[in-house]
Amino acid sequence: MKTPWYYGWNVIAFCIVFQAISFGSVFYSFAVLAIPLTKAFTISLSQTMLATSFLQIGMGALSPLLGRALDLMPLRQLVIIGALGLCIGFIILANTSSLWILLLVYSCLLPTGLILSGSMAAQTAAARWFIRKRGLALGISAVGTSVGAFLFPPLVTALLSRYGLSTTFLAMALLSALIIIPLAWLILSRVPNTTDLESQVTTPQHPTICDKSDRNWTMVEILRQPSFWIIISGFAPICASFTSVQFNLGAYAHDHGFLSTQTASLLSTLAIAMVGGKFFFAGLSDRIDHRFLFLIMAISQGAVLISLQFSPSYTALIAILILFGFSMGGGLPLLGAMIADQFGVKAFGRLIGISTLFITASSAAGPYFTALVYDAVGSFNIAFSAIAALIIPGALAILLLKSRSPIIGSIAKSPST
């Protein structure tokens, strides 16, 4: 049976759904969960932030292995496994008061869910299905994380205030099981695997999968490429900046006297801004030099980190977070576009997995370092200044990346999807 031309956009729509649930429940809700967790477990803020560090260390450690699985196994099965990981993890969290179990769940089960039912799976699906509109598809797919960032903080805040921590975790487990699993079974069956890409030809089922310059890179070959390390050096401090602010935003807002409902609104504002940034950067990544787009993102991130040190009013903080979200919104689609442009898509899962291993090392250190500095001196300013300083050499490194034509330039004659 011939696949309809619009089926790829059905896949992208589902990618938005499962990313919204996975990232919204695990990643973006942590800012409003931080204070309740700190009180429930009777620990310090820096100890609570260890959970975010373990989460990202787990993602980094598992990403190469699971990234390779995304290249070799049916995507449908892997997304379902990811949803089960989320479900089991939340059930355990609902029934524990042990810090070590909290850290174990955040280092194993939840990272598995975020990888297999999150952005890596979504980017892999988008990169395989699209060529001529790959940048746009990657950007639209990445909107799912922002949808989760918009919906889940106020939802989790409401659940916490009415039902408490345990019931909140159980509710998130139900969402993962009842929405992601059945939709994955219905929609993802036609997403191509590596064996489909090996043919290097277009097919009626997948009319614009790959181009003839694509290559199946090995891990050793990837690690020997200077362009890979340039991309890592640029994105690592940017991601550390984002996680440092995002995970500590609840504590930052609390420290400045804002209410929990205001914090949830700030996180939703951040999410809306990220949606705009994803469309902006994704659309332009098909037409404009990726290095120029990265510089816009880096300069904006640095400006935000400096601005947060001046104790802004609530209105000013909203404006700062709009800039922060808009600039960081380009991170995920721009990373995917750079990797696809430099290396192709036949080993896209492996490339994203290996890059995640290195990028999450800094992402994991950022929130913990920021909270540790706060516990020591009672202010986030020193940590924000240090991270802003690290962005500068990363941005300069990106300028060393070899300029290549955007994907659309090499495939302008390919059929549209």
Walkthrough of the structure:
- The chain contains 19 helices and no strands.
- Helix 3 runs parallel beside helix 5 and helix 14 (290-307) packs antiparallel against helix 16.
- The radius of gyration is 20 Å and the shape is globular.
- With 417 residues, the chain is mainly alpha-helical.
- 78% of the residues lie in helices and 0% in strands.
Layout of SSEs?
Elements: H1 7-28, H2 30-41, H3 45-72, H4 75-94, H5 99-107, H6 109-116, H7 119-129, H8 134-163, H9 165-187, H10 194-197, H11 219-223, H12 226-255, H13 260-285, H14 290-307, H15 314-328, H16 331-343, H17 348-377, H18 381-398, H19 407-410
Helix pairs in contact: 1-7, 1-8, 1-9, 2-3, 2-8, 2-12, 3-5, 3-6, 3-17, 4-5, 4-6, 4-9, 7-8, 7-17, 8-9, 8-13, 8-16, 12-13, 12-14, 12-16, 12-17, 12-18, 13-15, 13-16, 14-15, 14-16, 14-18, 17-18
Rg is 20 Å
Low-pLDDT regions: 197-213, 405-417
What structural category arises from helix and sheet content?
Answer: mainly alpha
N-end to C-end Cα span: 18 Å
Biggest sheet features: none
Helix content: over 70%
Count of alpha and pi helical runs: 19
Proportion of residues in extended strands: under 5%
Order of helices and strands: HHHHHHHHHHHHHHHHHHH
Anisotropy-based shape: globular
Number of strands: 0
Question: What structural keywords apply?
Answer:
globular; mainly alpha; 78% helix
Short précis:
The chain contains 19 helices and no strands. It has helices at residues 7-28, 30-41, 45-72, 75-94, 99-107, 109-116, 119-129, 134-163, 165-187, 194-197, 219-223, 226-255, 260-285, 290-307, 314-328, 331-343, 348-377, 381-398, 407-410.
